[in-house]
Amino acid sequence: MPAAPTNLLTAIGFKLISALLFASMSALVRQLGDVAPVGQMVFFRSAFAIPPVLLIYALRGEFMSAIRTRRPFGQLGRGALSTFGMFTNFSALTRLPLAEATAINFASPLITVALAALILKERVRIFRWSAVAVGFFGVIVMLIPNLSLEHYAAAGAGSVALAGSLYAIASAFCNAGTVIQTRRLTQSEPTASIVFYFSLITTLAGAVTLPFAWHSPTAMELTGLISTGVLGGIAHIFLTESYRHATASVIAPFDYTAMLWALLLGYWVFGELPSALVYVGAAIVAGAGLAVIFRERWLGLQRAREAEGLRRPEI
To answer: How many domains does the chain have?
Structure first.
């Protein structure tokens, strides 16, 4: 299939929509976390994401490429990482303010840099290692309120918040590992197949937990549970489409609009206002991540100019 022509406004629009939908899904998880077990939410989030994903691929004529795979064990490995990532992310969302859980997850791209050097043996220079170090410092800044003695003075609040922070960090590591495994799979597997098996494996993992932890939802709660899957599935479609219209380095910075949506939804829906240190830490993490993105974009443009110079005939 030929690559879609670059359309910057369309790509940015799709990326912004996907960020809003993912933030809305996270807000639903945050709200449902008071009544529904995490495994049940994972099941609904994954199962009801499959229909919209399969529908869009069927309309594109890519249905068979979605269900066919040449690397089942590679898909299983990525699915296992995604499963742990989703369980830990949802566990964090049920324990932390929405904006705080979202901000800690922004460390994931920086962790990906470190894992790419360790696992994929990519050459990582001092600039990116410095950005990783700065980003982790930002995470520590965000964790300070949850480690303070005053926070532990509140009955149970300190331990719950600390557990939520640890879940968020674990989720960031799992998401980074998923990115690394995705890079390996894309060498032979189409995007449609990777997206489908991600949803299928996480659905099965969530289903395994249902006999052990099940909440009988009200009509409103059931609507919310189903909506997490539909929102997640549609958000994934918009995310994928955004990368069809522009390069990753151009639209990746718009990932950070999720923080804005998390702040607004956290305040409007839950009346949550993060502490000043969370804002400072989030700014440090986002700044480090953006520095890596813009640095990679600059290097990519530089390499493209050099390649063009080599191809240009001498006069």
So the answer is: 1
